[in-house]
């Protein structure tokens, strides 16, 4: 008899409604399951197939797209967490799919280990983050998914499939960023390394200098990123490089003042003012762009790569060829300057080296990421539509978990291996058990 935890008509919201972090996506699944093991999950998948219900897994809901939304069976992996094993000879760690990145980072640090690179928040589950292509910034080190060495997933017939470069390599090539279309990921094996120190140098810099020196800034730093404040010529830059130490973390008081009070508390209040009175936004942007002073600190990786993000927003992000990033940014700035748009959130710019994952936004090409944001509750469609027009003119690839309007026809042009992914999907899920409206749009019927 099944021991799978099943809750019918009850999700994380009111009246059985599930909502994402951004508040722009909601769904009412027929039932929610919270399996505590691979066997329980496989049974839930088989039962859903028998009942004719589609299946989607969801982590913390940090995607702005409807990639996890379903009217069928919603799988919540919150009981499938923790590290399964650490292999110090191979320098890998195998972790349950529902493990939040924050918990993984803390556990690795206790073991004296670390991922090579990560994104700027760590609230997502490992499966949710990798399945949508979450990334940080890096000259040589790539996305979180590019650090995967093995995957375990439950496929549409309820069987458990393991894959790596040697075992089911065609599945491994695609499933590291699988969009939830190939099965439900149950465990991930990451490559890790001994914990190291990063020295972060954060400082304001004129936008024109950043653009003119971008190639040099990228080449000279292991991890370079910057934030441009629309309606100004100002940026905040961040350069992270490996360090021999000593460890010199941000002081507790300064960290609270800059990372919590200014970057979250004051910034949220300013955005509320800007949303109520749009005419104030350019002045707020000028003040915001000068609020943070230069600072340098040295700490273990996750404490440098990640930061708290408590102000809720909507986001669109596109990957363009790295050599096109300066031209793309100049076009984006020109568009904002000649428009009547009022943009209170900075534009974030990061990079990643080419990788070999079928539908990675960096697949086969060195890439730069440009992310545009709007404060939650502020109309964002006009800004995002105009920005998307700029990005797609350069062959941009949208982040799978962030707002975009692209479809399968577009993706078949910008991803040379797109047909490989859809053919694998036809083989692993011919009846589309893992379907939803989002996958129908981006992958085709």
Structure in a nutshell:
The chain has 445 residues and is α+β, with helices and mostly antiparallel strands.
Tell me the β content: 15-25%
- Runs with pLDDT <50, length 5+? 6-13
Overall outline: globular
Counted beta strands: 21
Q: Approximately how much helix is present in the residues?
A: 25-40%
How would you describe the overall organization of this protein?
Helix 10 runs antiparallel to helix 11. This protein has 14 helices and 21 strands. It has helices at residues 38-51, 101-110, 126-131, 169-175, 207-212, 214-220, 252-276, 281-289, 301-305, 325-338, 381-392, 408-414, 418-428, 437-443, and strands spanning 6-8, 18-19, 26-27, 31-33, 55-57, 73-75, 83-87, 92-96, 113-114, 148-154, 160-163, 184-191, 193-194, 197-206, 223-228, 234-243, 295-299, 313-321, 347-352, 367-375, 397-398. The strands form five sheets. An eight-stranded antiparallel beta sheet has the order 17-14-16-15-19-20-18-21. Residues 6-13 have low confidence and may be disordered. The chain has 445 residues and is an alpha+beta fold.
């Amino acid at each position: 008899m099944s021991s799978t935890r099943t809750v019918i008509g009850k999700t994380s919201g009111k009246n059985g409604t599930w909502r994402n972090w951004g508040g722009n996506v909601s769904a009412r699944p027929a039932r929610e399951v919270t399996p505590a093991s691979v066997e329980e999950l496989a049974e839930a998948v088989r039962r859903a197939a028998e009942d004719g219900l589609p299946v989607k897994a969801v982590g913390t809901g940090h995607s702005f797209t409807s990639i996890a939304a379903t009217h069928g069976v919603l799988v919540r992996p919150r009981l499938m967490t923790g590290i399964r094993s650490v292999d110090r000879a191979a320098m890998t760690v195998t972790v349950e799919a529902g493990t939040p990145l924050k918990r993984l980072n803390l556990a690795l640090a206790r073991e004296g280990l670390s991922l090579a690179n990560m994104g700027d928040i760590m609230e997502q589950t490992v499966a949710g983050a990798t399945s949508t292509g979450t990334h940080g910034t890096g000259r040589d080190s790539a996305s979180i998914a590019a650090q995967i060495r093995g995957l375990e997933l439950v496929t549409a017939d309820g069987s458990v499939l393991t894959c790596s470069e040697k075992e089911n390599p065609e599945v491994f090539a695609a499933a590291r960023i699988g969009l939830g279309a190939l099965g439900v990921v149950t465990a991930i094996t990451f490559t890790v390394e001994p914990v190291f120190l990063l020295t972060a140098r954060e400082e304001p810099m004129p936008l024109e200098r950043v653009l003119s020196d971008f190639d040099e800034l990228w080449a000279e730093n292991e991890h370079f990123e910057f934030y441009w404040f629309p309606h100004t010529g100002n940026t905040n830059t961040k350069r992270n490089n490996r360090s021999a130490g000593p460890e010199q973390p941000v002081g507790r008081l300064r960290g609270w003042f800059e990372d919590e009070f200014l970057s979250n508390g004051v910034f949220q209040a300013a955005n509320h003012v800007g949303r109520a009175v749009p005419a104030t936004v350019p002045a707020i942007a000028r003040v915001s762009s000068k609020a943070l002073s230069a600072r340098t600190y040295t700490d273990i990786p996750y404490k440098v790569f990640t930061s708290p993000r408590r102000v809720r927003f909507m986001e669109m992000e596109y990957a363009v060829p790295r050599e096109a990033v300066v031209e793309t940014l100049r076009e984006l700035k020109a568009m904002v300057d000649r428009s009547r748009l009022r943009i209170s959130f900075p534009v974030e710019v990061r990079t990643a080296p080419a990788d070999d994952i079928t539908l990675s936004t960096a697949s086969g090409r060195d890439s730069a990421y440009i992310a545009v944001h709007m404060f939650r509750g502020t109309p964002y469609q006009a800004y995002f539509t105009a920005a998307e027009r700029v990005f797609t003119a350069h062959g941009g690839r949208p982040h799978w978990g962030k707002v975009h309007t692209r479809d399968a026809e577009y993706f078949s042009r910008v991803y040379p291996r797109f047909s490989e992914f859809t053919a694998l999907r036809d083989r692993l899920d011919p009846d589309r058990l893992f379907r939803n409206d989002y996958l129908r749009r981006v992958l085709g019927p």
